[in-house]
Specification:
A hairpin with a 2-residue loop joins strand 1 and strand 2. Strands 8, 9, 10, 11, 12, 13, 14, 15 and 16 form a nine-stranded mixed beta sheet that branches. The protein contains four helices and 16 strands. The protein is globular, with a radius of gyration of 17 Å. Helix 2 runs parallel beside helix 3. By secondary structure, it is α/β, with parallel strands linked by helices.
């Protein structure tokens, strides 16, 4: 697609009767109230693996927090919403990860933060009160938008969710394939890509009428249905 396709630095979507801005930093900005929304950060996942005897590199939580800080500085949100799986497991409550989170939170003391509890959050346990992150159950409905961890249908309500770590698989001319994280929009359902680096992705099962926006080269591109494979 390089040379024939223009990658956008951002894409504004009409969703739920309001405007959402998809960002190539794997986040979305709800424009009317200016809320920054991210899904599936899985902080402490590498530390969890190491605690369980699996040798994986460190630094993923620190890198993720740095990316999040850059987004906050860029978008100047009035609230930060986590769509579940902020922490990966109980081992994420270890001193190293908690110290990193505490230092990061101290950089943004006036920014309200809300966590819509996900399946990993329930196993990991709530973030420490000192982090000042409100924890709510799904669906958390505000101004006609339901914020969820698990993608789901709610009658007469637009749902923004995570959980699936959606990605698209594209075919190249030499029988090669490429997997890219994506935003996946259906009628009344918008699924965000995973923000965490150490998370992987699951190819979506696209249906007629879906819109798919892949993230590549620090940009966004809408992918036509014919370009996707299962």
């Amino acid at each position: 697609m390089r040379g024939r396709t223009r990658f956008a630095e951002r894409l504004d979507l009409d969703f739920g009767g309001t405007t959402w801005r998809a960002l190539p930093q794997l986040a979305a900005l709800w424009l009317p109230p200016r809320w920054l929304v991210v899904a599936d950060l899985h902080f402490g996942k590498a530390a969890t693996f190491r605690a369980r005897g699996v040798p994986v590199p460190g630094g993923t939580t620190e890198a993720g927090l740095a990316r999040l800080t850059a987004l906050i500085e860029q978008t100047r949100p009035r609230r930060l919403v986590f769509l579940g799986d902020l922490l990966h497991a109980r081992e994420a409550h270890g001193a190293g990860t908690m110290q990193q989170l505490a230092r990061w939170r101290a950089q943004h003391p006036a920014l309200p933060m809300t966590l819509v509890e996900g399946n990993h959050d329930r196993h990991a346990g709530a973030p420490p009160p000192a982090l000042s992150i409100d924890v709510v159950d799904e669906p958390w409905t505000m101004q006609g938008i339901a914020f969820c961890h698990h993608p789901q249908r709610i009658a007469n309500t637009a749902v923004v969710a995570g959980h699936l770590h959606p990605c698209v698989r594209l075919h190249g001319a030499a029988n090669d394939t490429l997997r890219l994280p994506c935003f996946w929009q259906r009628v009344d359902l918008l699924t965000l890509p995973a923000f965490g680096e150490f998370t992987g992705g699951a190819p979506i099962q696209r249906e007629r009428g879906d819109r798919v926006f892949a993230v590549a080269d620090a940009g966004l591109i809408e992918i036509p249905a014919a370009a996707l494979t299962v």
